[in-house]
Amino acid sequence: MNKEFLKKIFFKSLTGFLSLALAILLFFCVQRLDQLRQTFRWLLGVLTPFIYGGGMAYLLKTPCGFLERRIEAALPEKHKKWAVVLSVSAVLLLSALVIYLLMSMVIPEIGNSIMTLAVVVPPKAEEFARWVVAHLEGNEVLQNYVNNAFVSMENWLMNWLNTDLLSTVQGMMGGAFTAVSSVFTVVKNIVLGIIICIYLLTGRKKFAKHCKALVYAVFKPERADALLKECAFIDSTFVGFFGGKILDSAIVGLICYVFCAVMAVAAGFQNAVLISVIIGVTNVIPYFGPFIGAVPAALLILISSPRNCLIFLIFIVVLQQFDGNILGPKLLAGSVGLTGFWVLFAITLFQGMFGFVGILVGVPVFAVIYDLVRRWIVAGLKKHDRLDMLQ
After folding, report:
1. pTM (global) more than 0.85
2. Which residues of 347-380 are buried (b: 16+ CB within 10 A; e: fewer)?
3. Residue range of the domain that includes 369
4. Does residue 364 sit within a domain?
5. 113 pLDDT tier (thresholds 50, 70, 90)
6. Cα 180 to Cα 190: distance, rounded to the nearest angstrom
């Protein structure tokens, strides 16, 4: 009895001590918030190559595993150990080839678009000014407003060219060393990220085995099983979402390219490749992606032909309906399990918290949270014998 009493006192004292220590730690964190932010940024900068490498490895692990199984089945028994190396090499080469093809198609198109803008915009602006003056003939008040607006715009442009642009160029020239240093840092992080990606892909089975052993060493068998099951669900959710979304965006970009290529012959559409890449890449962003990509693409077409711009916008609306109601659900079926309301809520919430990264990962992260809450509710209802409320 005395021993039980001492044990009870010990645990109560330990609980009080830990609560006090946690309160002191929280107070210290609040008082040193700026220093913690600086430390976090420094740590994030140090770990940037590992973040790049981990992200690349996670995106490539599914195709790498697919190729590894095919290569391992085709190799004789004594050479099966080379399946991992060959699959990783093949995936990296294919990824580099895809990036090279996209860049080789997009960069010349961007240059051509800039040249087209430089040639087309001034005559279009003069034509618009003449059109405005012609339609306002006889209305001196509106003509004065328009003329003043044109004069103000011209003065602002000349002032920007002579002051802001010149000072920006001078600043760029003066900060050339900083710019070169920043570029070198980015290149260094990408190169290190690729090396880390190779290590992670080649040793992914060993890393997974070590992590599994660590989980079973720390937790009881039933808790370890539940934790690993939850990790498997999270992995399948993310892989299913990103894999399906990338395939969906590739199909949408291809459909857009076919349409633009046909319209280039029929109606003189320009920049078919650039527009298709913009539509395909922005389609990776859930919900808002098609509209984000449609804006710059429509502006490129509007410069040369307002009629073609209207046709393109109608096509984008039809394409978005097809993707949102038929293609997307077909490819993403079962990967997130969220309704349109919760998808919109997840994007809005995580975009406000984490910016562009939140837009990309918000939906699968919220899908995991949603599933955890759903299972918690089901367990509570089952405990109270009220599963009938789910019907």
Report:
1. no
2. beebbeeeeeebbbebbbbbbeebbeeeeeeeee
3. 336-391
4. yes
5. low
6. 15
